[in-house]
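[Meeting: bench + compute handoff]

Bench side (C.D.) handed over the final construct sequence. Compute side (W.E.) agreed to return the predicted structure before the next meeting so the bench team could plan truncations. Sequence as handed over:
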Amino acid sequence: MSLPLTRISSDALSVSISPLGAELQSITTAGGQELLWHGDAAFWSGRAPVLFPIVGRAPQDRIAVNGVEAEMKQHGFARRSLFALEYSTDSRARFVLEDSEDTRAVYPFRFRLALTYEVDGASLSVTAEVTNLDDSEMPFGLGFHPAFAWPLPGGQGAPHLVTLQNGAEPALARLRDGYLTEDRYPSPFRGGELTVEPALFDEDAMIFPEGAGTELLYSAPGTDAPALHFRFENTPNLGIWTKPGAPFLCIEPWHGMAARFLGGPEIYDRPDCVTLLPRASERFAYKVSLQ
């Protein structure tokens, strides 16, 4: 069953969002160039899921809160949940997911997750605000998982770069069977620059637990392809991922990562878990701008 999409736009961008997962479905330039992956299930049916209350896998797909266990699929339940459209204008839309009997059966907290999308000129801002409505502290992870065209429109046949604004060479972490290992490997970045090649993903996602900074550029220099400038807020972890042979590149800012290899199911023990006090809120965001 198809769901009605919410559409927002500026003079430079048109964006559509589904209420299922409050997930981006399209980012189109004024010239008709589609920047977002189209979700071909032959590779991966996602387009830009929002990950909550965990990022990545849980051991045997089970989480625990203070020793009480429940089933939790990879990346949590928000991406499979129907959000309510709180409001929309020509350029801004806000979606809300609140706890329910179903969510409390697996994640025993009262919460509110609000996702706001806003276009302003050639920029799209995506903001997640998590509010703990419970009487006890609430552990969780929050991540963004947008997939962009690779190659970028107009960049066919050209090398594509991911360039960190801070010029860093952050250490690389890898997954084993879907879980984060403690091993760290030499950075694939050189002076903050990475040439994107399929072989980089032979061992699944590239994960940079720290040091990637708050801004990067995804581009195909020397072509007419639009360059995408990203700015991140409160997301210290970065994932970069694609599937073999797939024409997309996921640029994923997170606060929280997959469970540790050979680790237990407790949410509190997950790397970079966020712990929110009762009645408190925390904000996470990214902004992508055409250059």
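W.E. noted at the follow-up: The CA atoms of residues 96 and 114 lie 4 Å apart. C.D. will use this when planning the next construct.
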